[in-house]
Every structure is written in structure tokens, then in C-alpha cells.
Design brief:
By secondary structure, the chain is mainly α. The chain has helices at 3-77, 86-126, 135-187, 189-192, 196-202, 204-207, 218-224, 226-250, 254-267, 279-305, 315-333, 344-353, and strands at 368-372, 376-382, 389-395. The chain is elongated, with a radius of gyration of 33 Å. The chain crosses the membrane at residues 16-38.
């Protein structure tokens, strides 16, 4: 074999090695590119599921808003004035109790589980560390992680609030029902008091207070809210003595009637406000909700501004929710009053200056309308993704 032949053989060998190397790198590049493409597709699916949760949240918020308005309407219709219709008051109270049950069911069976589903979805996606995601995508995930962390705090705080609210509303319905019955008795006093049996029948709801009655979950209330427990003891004392006084009067035992009347006068000076300080529970809940929606809004803006994908995201519903929670925090610091504002721009300015909203908050304020008072805020907008016309209300 000549040198030229050997040289040609070496050259061909090098070309073969070079060609083989190019094929390897090409396969590697195609494989990496394919994995990157697949990773982004998984990212997009995740973003779509997050958007779905956001849409469900708005649907539930609007449903609960309606139930709260219905409940307020029923309570406002109850009259404690002399001459009020006992039948009408009972009807409105029963409707209010039914609506309250529906409200708590909506919260416990749908709203809190939605929180859990969204948190689980985020945790599962973040656990897929092998996905090949780049700069802005990772930044988006970091914001979503913050959303999930604050949603967890909000869920835990809300669960406690719901539990305590149910506890107290049950007691409240008992006292209101008894007050309505007593008011009906007073309205027909002249007709009833002449008969012992009629008096006993009309005051039957109050008789339980003379026999050691305990309110629903009274022991738990005693532990959680000692001051409220004392109020319940005041109700027991008032209604037991009231029952005994009118029964004594119907039996023409006037000496006992006068003695009980004096006792009732003393008892009536006690505290009968069935209220607790909700601030320690509400504040962390409102703040966590606000932080979650602000981070969510930032994530949406990042996704859209950097064109990270093709999923349509609802900026307005997140902005509306952030505003509502900021307004609720404001009310805690201003004796349950809401900021004075005639439009969204003015409301955002007040909330920003008060440091309830960040100065870099970014959303299209022209897409919102506002009706407000010191006791109620209503934000109106059209969801840019679903096309739904929505009104979210904050009220005391």
C-alpha cells in the first residue's frame, strides 16, 4: 500500500468520525429540543388548569355573594317592632336559617376543597423537577408557588372562621327565634294573659330556660369565648325569669310577679350583645387572600407580557379579588368603614396610599366600574376569558 493510499484511508476515517459525531450531536439536539418542547407543553397544560381553578373560584364567590345578599334581605325583613307579624318574622327567620346552611355548605363542600385541589395541583407540578423550563417560566412558577403558599394560609384561616361562625350562628338563631316568639306574645298580651294555658303555650319556647337548658355547643363557647358565654347566661336568666313572671301573673300571683319583675329589671341591665372580636381571625385571612391574588395577578402579567404561552388568563377577576381583600383590610383599620371613592382610580389611590396595595399594582382600571358607600363596595367587570359579567361585593 502506498503512502497516498494510507493518507486517503486516514482521511476517510476522520471524515467518518466527524460525520458520526455530527449525527450524535444532531440526535442529541433533536432529543433535547423534543424534550424542551414537551416540557413547555406540560407547562401550558399546568397553566390551563390553574386558569380553570381561577374561573371556578369566581363562580363560587359570586354564588356566595348572592347567598349573603339573600341572607341580609331575610334578616332585614324581620321586625322587632310592636305589632310585627309573628308569622312573617318566623318565615323570614326560617328562610335565613336555610340560606345560612346553604352558605356554609357552599364554603365547606366546594370553596375549601377548591383551595385544596389547586394547592395539590401546584405541588404535583413543582415536584416534576426534571422538566426543562427556562427563565421566565421559572419566574412564573415562583409566583405561583407564592400563590399556593398564601392560599394554604387563607384556607387554614378560613376553615377556623367558618367553624366559629357556624358555632355562633346556631346560638344566634336560637336567641332570635325565642325573641320573635316573645315579641309575638307581647303583641297579643291582652288576649293571651287572661288564660294560663294560652300563656303557657305562647311562652313555650322560653320554658326550656327554667329547666337547665344548654345552648348548642355551649361548652365549646365557654372555652373559646368566656365573655360570650356570660352573655348566654344573661339570656338564660332573662328568659327564665320572664317565663316565670308571666306564668305567675296569669295565675294571679301578683306578689311573685312583682318580685320577678324587679329581678328582670336588674338582669336587663346586663350585656346581651352576641358579638365577638373577629379581627384576630379575619386579619390573617384577608391578608393571605390579598397576597395570593396579588401574586396571581403578577403571574398573569408576567405570562402575558413575555408571551410564555397561548393560554388566555383572567387578569380582571384577580384584580377584582385583590381590590376586595384590600378593601376588607382597610375596613378593619377604619371602624368597619370602607374608603371613600367614586371610581376605581380613586379607590386604588386610597388603598395604595394606605399601603394596602403595592405601588406597582398593574391592571386595566378602565375595564371596571364601582358603586360604593362607607358600608358596601361593588366592583363590576366583564371577565375577558369567559365573557361573564360579574359583580363582586364587599359589605359589612
Amino acid at each position: 500500500m502506498g503512502l497516498s493510499t494510507i493518507a486517503k484511508g486516514v482521511s476517510a476515517h476522520r471524515k467518518a468520525l466527524l460525520f458520526g459525531g455530527l449525527i450524535f450531536f444532531l440526535i442529541l439536539a433533536l432529543g433535547a429540543g423534543g424534550f424542551r418542547w414537551w416540557s413547555h407543553q406540560e407547562f401550558e397544560k399546568f397553566v390551563g388548569r390553574i386558569e380553570g381553578f381561577s374561573q371556578q373560584e369566581l363562580t363560587l364567590i359570586l354564588a356566595m355573594d348572592k347567598l349573603e345578599k339573600d341572607l341580609k334581605a331575610e334578616f332585614d325583613a324581620i321586625s322587632f317592632k310592636e305589632g310585627a307579624s309573628l308569622a312573617e318574622n318566623k318565615k323570614h327567620l326560617a328562610n335565613g336559617e336555610k340560606t345560612t346552611d346553604e352558605f356554609y355548605s357552599k364554603q365547606m363542600d366546594e370553596y375549601l376543597p377548591l383551595f385544596e385541589q389547586e394547592i395539590d395541583e401546584v405541588d404535583q407540578f413543582l415536584a416534576r423537577r426534571y422538566l426543562w423550563l427556562w427563565g421566565k417560566e421559572k419566574e412564573f412558577l415562583s409566583l405561583i408557588t407564592s400563590v399556593s403558599e398564601n392560599a394554604t394560609k387563607a384556607k387554614d384561616a378560613d376553615a377556623v372562621i367558618i367553624e366559629r361562625s357556624k358555632l355562633l350562628s346556631t346560638v344566634s338563631f336560637v336567641t332570635q327565634s325565642d325573641s320573635i316568639a316573645y315579641l309575638g306574645f307581647i303583641g297579643d298580651l291582652d288576649k293571651i294573659i287572661a288564660s294560663v294555658s294560652a300563656t303557657t303555650k305562647a311562652l313555650a319556647p322560653l320554658k326550656k330556660y327554667t329547666t337547665g337548658y344548654k345552648f348548642p355547643e355551649e361548652d365549646q363557647i365557654k372555652t373559646l369565648y368566656p365573655d360570650l358565654y356570660q352573655v348566654l347566661k344573661n339570656y338564660k336568666a332573662l328568659y327564665s325569669k320572664t317565663y316565670e313572671m308571666f306564668i305567675a301573673y296569669a295565675n294571679k300571683d301578683y306578689a311573685k310577679t312583682m318580685k320577678l319583675s324587679d329581678e328582670i329589671t336588674t338582669i336587663s341591665k346586663r350585656n346581651f350583645d352576641l358579638v365577638i372580636d373577629w379581627d384576630p381571625l379575619n386579619r390573617p385571612f384577608f391578608q393571605s387572600e390579598l397576597d395570593a391574588h396579588l401574586q396571581g395577578l403578577a403571574a398573569v402579567n408576567l405570562y402575558q407580557e413575555n408571551r410564555l404561552g397561548k393560554v388566555s388568563l383572567g387578569e380582571r377577576r384577580l384584580a377584582a379579588s385583590a381590590l376586595v381583600w384590600a378593601i376588607q383590610l382597610y375596613s378593619l383599620d377604619h371602624k368597619d368603614k370602607y374608603p371613600k371613592a367614586s371610581n376605581i382610580d380613586a379607590a386604588v389611590k386610597v388603598l395604595t396610599e394606605g399601603k394596602y396595595l403595592p405601588t406597582d399594582l398593574s391592571f386595566d382600571q378602565t375595564t371596571f366600574s364601582l358603586s360604593s358607600s362607607e358600608k358596601e363596595y361593588q366592583l363590576n367587570f366583564t371577565d375577558e376569558v369567559t365573557g361573564e359579567v360579574a359583580s363582586i361585593t364587599a359589605s359589612n
